[in-house]
Amino acid sequence: MPHGEIPGRRYTRHGLPVGVATRADGKPTITGYAAVFYDENDPGTEYQMYTDMYERIMPGAFDRALREDDVRGTFNHDDSIVLGRTKSGTMRLSVDRKGLKYEIDPPDTQAARDLMESIRRGDVSGSSFMFVPDENTYRSVGDKWIVERNSVRLFDVGPVTFPAYDSTDSACRSAPKGDAEAVRREIEAWKQRRGWSIPAIKARAQAVAVTLALESRRSR
Questions:
Q1: DSSP-derived secondary structure letter, 150
Q2: What's the number of domains the chain is made of?
Q3: pLDDT digits (tens, 9 = 90+) for 171-182
């Protein structure tokens, strides 16, 4: 990952739980949707980063990644629990109208066996993906700021124990500190590229800075 870039993690259940299927040869496969695309008819497909800021994963966002990125399948984004990999053929990624789907051929390890049992029991039902944005579109829609992810670099996907974001939940959630910092950088970069001096953008950047300062104090 390039120095200084903050990866984003997005979690989804959205009625699409991770599952374990059995292939024709009798071997298990872990399947799930790592991401759902934005659907204007479903508010739950927006990621609410702040009260007035939303992120949308747009159709086509993973097209380049599927062609070029060497993506790992992991449990809980833990690179010590690698379940599969696109380069080795033990994980396959695809997109459909819903979003980004993964199919993993897990290794015959104790960690993978324990995970599959937890999935079958319903103890693990969420999925997630880690990315860095490549191409974005920024919009102001009414009183909302919209960040559209048009293309991303994809690092890993897979099941997670505690999804921090349920895409069917429209309640406001505070973004993790890394996300807050990433948003602040995006806003500043956007402002510089456009050469605009919009009070709302400055206010947003200041609000993020204050949030980071408060989080820093609480962590001391």
A1: E
A2: 2
A3: 233 345 556 566
